[in-house]
Amino acid sequence: MTDLHIVEGDARDVAAIMPIMESAFDPAFGEAWSAAQCLSLLATPGTSLIAAQSGTGTVGFALTRWIFDEEELLMIGVDRPFQRMGVASALLAHIIRRAKLSNRSRIFLEVRSNNPAQQFYRQYGFEICGIRKGYYKGLNGDRFDAATMALNF
Ligand SMILES: CC(C)(COP(=O)(O)OP(=O)(O)OC[C@H]1O[C@@H](n2cnc3c(N)ncnc32)[C@H](O)[C@@H]1OP(=O)(O)O)[C@@H](O)C(=O)NCCC(=O)NCCS
Predict the structure, then answer these.
(1) How far is the CA of 58 from the centre of ligand 1 (A)?
(2) Which of 9, 27, 47, 122 could disulfide-pair with 13, CB 3.0 to 4.6 Å?
């Protein structure tokens, strides 16, 4: 995508990411956050919202949290019509660059074990470093393991 910009946002961008939250996350897994959850997170020190903007508006976002010398990637989502165009790659490249500049020792995240996003993370050097059994609960009550993945610097 040629007109893609990655920008550091804040709580004022939550309204713009909510339609992406609905579009990107499969409702079967109940993983999308509400606006209230996003706002509550962003009221906490060390958290950030990063937005991917194109000529049509916001097409993707990420939420992160800094804990000691680690950056946690809490969530990354791309509007469905804009997936597989490098939007999440551009967001992640920004997060990795920022983490290195801030001397973080690693970036880590939790991802549902059957989420194809694991392929995306692997592509950028993340490796599984732990499994949490039954960590996620789907809408029909099914439990799914979470893989903890990390990119160490
Ligand atoms: C995962 C997600 C963020 C990827 O966003 P994206 O902008 O489509 O990713 P990119 O275009 O940058 O993909 C880069 C590479 O990652 C890999 N990849 C991305 N999505 C993939 C998928 N669904 N299955 C397998 N590999 C994938 C591919 O190697 C891809 O390169 P290619 O398109 O040339 O094959 C997007 O699919 C999404 O929003 N998913 C729903 C939300 C979610 O589950 N987020 C992760 C947990 S918080």
Answers:
(1) 17
(2) 9
